[in-house]
Amino acid sequence: MVAYKCFTLRVLAVFVLILLTGSTAVALSQGETTETSEMNQISNSDENKYVSQTHTIVLINNSFSPEITEINQYDTVVWRNLNKPKRTFVLVGEDDLWEDFSLGYGRSFKYTFNETGTFDFSIKGEKGLQGSVVVSESGETTGAPLSERETSQIQQEETTETSEMDPGNTSEENKSVSQTHTFVLINNAFSPDITEIHQYDTVVWRNLNKPKRTFVLVSKDRLWEDFSLGYGRSYKYTFNETGTFDFSIKGERGLEGTVLVKSRVTAGETPLSERETIQQEEEGATPTPTEGVTPAQRVEDIQSSTVLIRGSVFYPETLELNTGEAVVWNNLNRPKRTFTLISEEGLFENQAVGYGRIFTYTFNESGEYTFKLEEIPDSEFILTVK
After folding, report:
1. What is the pTM of this model?
2. Are 202 and 179 in contact (CB under 8 A)?
């Protein structure tokens, strides 16, 4: 009987010990779970507070787009070289944030800004190629920067051809010499807003505007049907005719641009296209021959620089070139009107230049020359010929 009682007590003791051990384990498990949950909350809070985002600055058409970028502390900026013609640029941080970086075509460089302030950058040896990054404390800036997927998309060397439409067809002999030019819709503007190309070249329009939305790309000359350009999408068109062609975004005032198409063949042998003939008849303009060409020169061999008449001023206002080179004045002023180009030195008779029309003059003697618009007394263009 005594042995039985001892055995029973031992069983009870073991059972109590098992219960106590199980309770302790459950309590520890609950404690660890609570602690882990609290740690995760803290971690998530910190991650949300300092979540970094990526912003992209594109080097295209010999300028940065955008030139000024506002970001938050701990955000990352990616510089990408899509400039044409293809070449390598050296990216410099004016505040010595990084060592000078060689940025080849299609390549990128990224830097994370851990301090607030205004930081300037530039391209080594390229006057005017510069920009700024304005870094504010987290939460002070607004806007939607590019995601990692979007940034990777822009990294591609050439535009992803998302449009199935390509109204322009080039002949085999012209494909080898045709080039591609890009308009980027970003920061509610086209960059650039004017592009000068050659006949049979292709233009690509790409929508990288924020906030993300779809725009309708319109050809004012009805070269293509209105095209819906979604965010990250692109549209391309090959220009087989020479002339001046305007485009815009439907319903968006001021969102417009121009493609200037020059001939690839000898200008003196190029007949006017039907479109140019109609335009000339409407404006009462007459064809403008190339002036100042010596018998030994062929028009196709002459190097030329374009001066735009836009906003009732010359752009650029000054220019330098060598003897034997030409200047092409192109009237792209809005609203459309005719201007009278005057040479202060009397190099040529006063020239009436209608909208979309050009006047070309070749300079065979060195010197400094001044030109004005008769209708705009304050307008002035100064040319230095070496």
Report:
1. 0.40
2. yes
Determine, yes or no, domain membership for 41: no
The answer to whether residue 27 is domain-embedded is no
Per DSSP, the three-state class of 24 is helix
| Mean of pLDDT values over 82-108 | 89
CA distance 358 to 243: 10
Determine the average pLDDT of the residues in 150-162.
43
Task: Judge whether residue 271 has pLDDT over 50.
Answer: no
Domain boundary among 121, 155, 189: 155
Same domain flag for 300 and 236: no
Residue 66: asked if its preceding bond is cis (omega within 30°), the reply is: yes
Q: Which two tokens stand for residue 63?
A: 């300028």
Answer whether residue 73 is part of any domain: yes
Last residue of a domain, one of 262, 294, 329: 262
Q: Judge whether 257 lies within some domain.
A: yes
For 317-370, the pLDDT digits (tens) are: 888 889 988 898 988 877 788 999 999 999 999 999 988 788 999 999 999 999
Instruction: Indicate the average pLDDT of the chain.
Output: 75
Distances in Å between the Cα of 93 and the Cα atoms of 54, 71, 80 are: 18, 16, 15
| Residue 148 and residue 202 in one domain | no
Q: Which domain holds residue 343?
A: 285-385
The C-alpha atoms of residue 348 and residue 352 are separated, in whole angstroms, by: 12
Written as one string, the DSSP assignment of 151-188 is HHHHHSSS-------------HHHHTT--EEEEEEETT
Asked if residue 351 and residue 322 are part of one domain, the reply reads yes
Residue the block writes with tokens 């201007």: 339
CATH number of domain containing 304: 2.60.40.420
Give the Cα-Cα-Cα angle 239, 242, 244 (nearest 5 degrees): 90
333 and 305 in one domain? yes
Tell me if 121 sits within 8 A of 94, measured CB to CB: yes
**CA neighbours within 13 Å on the CB side: how many for 129?**
19
CA atoms within 13 A on the CB side of 284: 4
Q: Which two tokens stand for residue 152?
A: 């990777």
**How many domains, in total, are found in the chain?**
3
Backbone phi, then psi, for 114, in 5-degree steps? -95, -5
Asked if 136 and 70 touch (Cβ cutoff 8 Å), the reply is yes
What is the pLDDT averaged over residues 2-24?
A: 63
